[in-house]
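User: Please work through this fold.
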Amino acid sequence: MSDIVDFKPKADIEAAEQLHEFIAWAQAILPKGIPNRVHPSIRWDMNSWHSSGVNGVVFTVLASPRNVSAGQRQYMQPPFIDFAKAIVVYRHAYLGIKNVQSWLFSIKALEVALVELTGARDVTQLSAVVCNRACELMQLQWSKGNNAYLRSKGLEQVVALMTKKGLLAKPFRWNSPLKLQGRGSLKQQREDREKKLPSRESILALGELFNNNLTDPLDIVITSACALLLSQPARVGELVDVECDPIVFKENDNGSQRMFLRWYAEKGFGAALKPVLTGMGPVVKSLIGRMLPITNDARAYASWLEDHPDEFPPHPGVPEKGLDDPLTYEEACAALKLTLLEACSPRTIFRRNFVKKFKNKSLAPAAQALLDEINEGWDTKVKCIYVKGRRGRQRAEYDDKAIITLRKLNILVREKYLPKDFPYTSPFEDGKKRVKYRDALFCVRTGALNSKGIVATKDFGVEIAANTYRMVDQLASGRKTKGIFERHGYLGVSVNSHAFRHELNTEMHRAGLSQLLIDAFSGRTSMGSVYNHETVEERTQAVAVVHPKTKPSNAAKRLEKIRTNLPLSLRDVTELAGDSQDRVIHQTHVGLCVHNFASEPCPKMGSCLRCGKLVCVKGDDEKLKNIKEEQDYLQKRYRDALAAESRGEIGATEWVAAVRKELLKCNALIKLLENPELENGDIVWNTDDGWNLTNNAAAMAGLVEPQVIETKDQEALPSLDELSAILDEIEV
């Protein structure tokens, strides 16, 4: 009986082999597949790659607490964790996408669902049921906003990749069952707007603080950083790459000088000259003048470190010995600025306060080799030597093999205290020039700032004073550490540093700048519309201006006529279009019809959704209900058409295309009629697809090509689809 083995289907074996090859490929490409992005210390067996340059990548399980030490975290288990790492490498190294969080979060939910439903962590046995369960877990974990939806879309991409690479024993097609949430009620939209924009109190407080005679270096750093973020739309993370001399002047067409800043934008935009907002030029000059005295010493220190990579950082406590001369433990502690205690030997302090601090840290190969040398040469056997003439007194002797020198300590000190990208403030990518610490405006010695200002520098490092964590901590209120507002008496005032970017983007929209120009000014390649927080009233007016047939006047009167079944005239809906006729128009089940039935019957044979003479009125709930019923019917027809196409039935492909057009039109129409930017009583005109009885007969007789009919411009007005796209740009 011991010779009996479980039967494995061929598909399972092949999928397992493909998964093994995929993981082996990722293991081979990890150290070299992400040039200039990851630290050389990155290893496959690490549970976190965050400190090695792959930001935010920690292979913890779903819902693992974040505010605990690394030893208390719960991590993914084999063999699933190897699959997760391979997916991260594929997205980060092969696809070149820095942000891997959407995929990693979905994978975390996938592990839990897989164990719940299959009892194992074999991803080759993935199924649609497991994916649906993962989506349920995402909804429980991320209940606010569209976070669960966005991460479920990441899972869609993971499943598509696994299918493409042959990693599934039973391939399947799967779409997320989660739906994108709407923007909510007008009240919710206003609340969301208030959260994302800075309060008037915070702006006034920062202005007062900036113009006061501040002496605390921390206050100067925070107010200067905020002023810089208010001078042009930027991200707080981009402050690390601001040079100490970033100003460039260019001459305008009228001969005047315009101030620009040399800037490096995140998220793929890269280096650019960004114009400073009119009126903020003197502020930018002032903040640079305030920052330079605070940061000159740190930049000089960074310059020395860069120019002398093989020398130990100088300070008064460094022993006067050569780089390769052996050091005693007392001399090593003096070089490392470690305080000696009477109760502890220098050997103990060196090991406890320096060597053990490297535990669970990702190190470069040279530093790891030195640390291994010290640990392997460490004598664990205590030899007690009695002190002659002193009764009961004894001292311990050890036979440590490792030799400590300043050259070796220099390697370990730089590994421990310097940022991993030093001498650059950010990863050096794609051959693009980045800023060095010796040139960075916000460069300070590590530990040089606290709530009381400059204190004794800590150890041997340099850092960026206006980093994300410090900015968040100082601009908040009600925390354990008092922020800048609380320290100066502005109780209850707080602001998110990213709110400045939202504020400037919104003001640029109000000024009439195009979205393309705003995106370029803001240093981004996409997502621009989410920064627009114009009020509902402002954006409603913008919609009315874009589409002249969206008539804002007499809206209440028009809607009242519809609800009370009073006759509607053509003038009620076409006054802005200049139509002088005044005849009663026909009402259909989905809206109003302006066709003149006295001249000819319906040329569309009742196909209203394809007709350019259909008028829909916002607020007509009964018509909207009918359109939604039409949507349900079209969705069923579309599914039936797809099924027929999959069976290879003749004409099914044309059927799919035709129904799809009607369904898209219906969806767009519903979206417009539910848009909170339009007032009740406003009207939306449909667009014509060009087909009617006459054109259909002409096409069948070969007198005209179908493409000519479909591409013919029916009216000199935006189509429904175009208007839908315009609304998408105006809203989130």
About this structure: The longest strand covers residues 257-265. Residues 281-307 form the longest helix (27 residues).
